[in-house]
Design goal:
The chain is 50% helix and 9% strand. By secondary structure, it is α+β, with helices and mostly antiparallel strands. It has one domain: Cytochrome P450 (Cytochrome p450, Orthogonal Bundle), CATH 1.10.630.10. The chain is globular. It starts with 25 loop residues before the first helix and ends with a strand. Bound molecules: protoporphyrin IX containing FE. It comes from Prauserella cavernicola.
């Protein structure tokens, strides 16, 4: 019999509602990898938690389009609350299979090549230096609102060329919208997500009208021009791509910057290693991405019966690939998989940016932001320390600190 069989009653199930999960899901992931690496959840979705299986699933031809899901208890709950269970009505590239995916991704990929991204370095350095100047003046701050959120938000807003907006409102709305990427059973929360989705979609639709009147040399204008061509991008697709970039540009990187700083401050010797040798920073960023994945899960829908780890998953199944668990799988990383080691060899083989055709389009940008932030942080604040209670954002997927109080001396 395969070791990856369906769980019996006494075998653990993925349970994001368990006490303490938001603060530390890793002990549960370890149990799943050992005892139920491929299993079906009573809510009707499947969970895959080992590196080998996660990686194979993401690279397989499995779908991302919701219309291929055989309805189950979770999708019925979500439908009842009016939620489409996907970002921006399923029209963004994240929710489309080839050939639509290929067409949509091609339209924006030029802006994200390593070369185009590298050109942003001076501006990112300038933004980070300004934020660190403010932090130095204050001495003690919450690092989330003073650096981890405003930096990626400013960068993506400038890249797109969005009009001035109420940042806090956008953050509030996108914080709700990204919860459509995780299992939610609370009907009130489901309704709030749906309303936030509508409001944010409306906001971006208004931005499209503004951009038509205020074209510039930016990504948004390039997309508006593609939409005007008609045969490459429809009106709704335009709104969906901008919204995806807008949200993905900051809701993920905030967790790398805040969660990464927290991990380094908790493992003080690793922070000290960077203070002593800043050349380690690029590898440290990969290790931080591995150690605490800013995006904890990805999902696929099987288009045919699919065998993973000896278990047959039926056609039309919603399968959650737990990236964060794969990144801690001792079968892949060895016995010290749970340790943070900024000099870990091969750290970049993590699956934090996914794999296959949907591999994160913004990976070079996220890496660059990480390099600049951690380089500047360790060189300017060698004595950086935690200075109060850390709270978590309570999310299952785009998980990270909500507050991160630190002092710089
Ligand atoms: C896709 C993670 C930053 C834009 C993805 C996926 C993951 C991911 C896991 C794949 C989802 C899947 O396979 O279903 C991350 C992490 C980030 C980050 C951990 C930061 C640390 C960014 C940034 C941007 C961005 C800064 C853009 C400004 C995108 C886009 C996709 C994507 C457009 C969809 C790609 C496709 O479907 O082809 N990201 N991301 N991401 N990401 Fe990121």
């Amino acid at each position: 019999m395969s070791e990856s069989t369906l769980p019996a009653e006494d075998v653990p199930l993925f349970n994001p509602f368990a006490e303490g999960f938001a603060e530390n899901p890793y002990p549960q992931y370890a149990l799943l990898r050992d005892q139920a690496p491929v299993h079906e959840h009573p809510l009707g979705f499947w969970v895959v938690s080992r590196y080998e299986h996660v990686s194979a699933l993401l690279r397989s031809g499995a779908s991302v389009e919701d219309r291929n899901i055989t309805p189950g208890p979770l999708s019925e709950l979500q439908q009842a609350a009016g939620d489409s269970a996907s970002l921006v009505e399923g029209l963004s590239m994240l929710d489309r299979d080839p050939p639509d995916h290929t067409r949509l991704r091609k339209l924006v990929s030029k802006a994200f090549t390593p070369r185009s991204v590298e050109a942003l370095r001076p501006r990112i350095e300038q933004l980070v230096d300004g934020m660190l100047d403010d932090i130095e003046r204050q001495g003690a701050v919450d690092l989330v609102p003073s650096l981890a959120f405003p930096l990626p938000f400013a960068v993506i807003a400038e890249m797109l060329g969005t009009p001035p907006t109420d940042q806090l409102r956008v953050r509030e709305l996108s914080g709700l919208v990204v919860r459509s990427l995780e299992p939610v059973v609370d009907p009130e929360l489901l309704r709030a997500i749906d309303e936030a989705n509508d409001e944010l979609t409306g906001l971006v639709a208004d931005m499209v009208a503004w951009k038509r009147k205020n074209p510039a040399d930016d990504l948004f204008t390039a997309l508006v021009n593609a939409e005007e061509d008609g045969d490459v991008l429809s009106d709704d697709e335009l709104v969906a791509q901008v919204l995806l970039l807008y949200i993905a540009g900051h809701e993920t990187t905030v967790n790398l910057l805040a969660g990464g700083t927290l991990a380094l401050l908790r493992e003080r010797d690793q922070y000290a290693a960077l203070v002593n040798d800043r050349a380690l920073v690029p590898n440290a960023v990969e290790e931080l991405l591995r150690y605490d994945s800013p995006v904890q899960q990805s999902r696929r829908i099987t288009l045919e019966p699919t065998t993973i780890g000896g278990v047959e998953i039926p056609k039309g199944a919603f399968v959650m690939a737990v990236l964060a668990s794969a990144n801690r799988d001792e079968r892949r990383w060895g016995p010290d998989a749970d340790s943070l080691r900024v000099d870990r060899e091969g750290a970049r083989h993590h699956v934090s940016f996914g794999a296959g055709v949907h591999h994160c389009l913004g990976a070079s940008l996220a890496r660059l932001e990480g390099h600049v932030v951690f380089d500047r942080l360790v060189s300017r604040f060698p004595e950086l320390a935690l200075d109060g209670e850390v709270t978590w954002n309570g999310r299952i997927n785009l998980r990270g600190p909500e507050t991160l109080p630190v002092s710089v001396r």
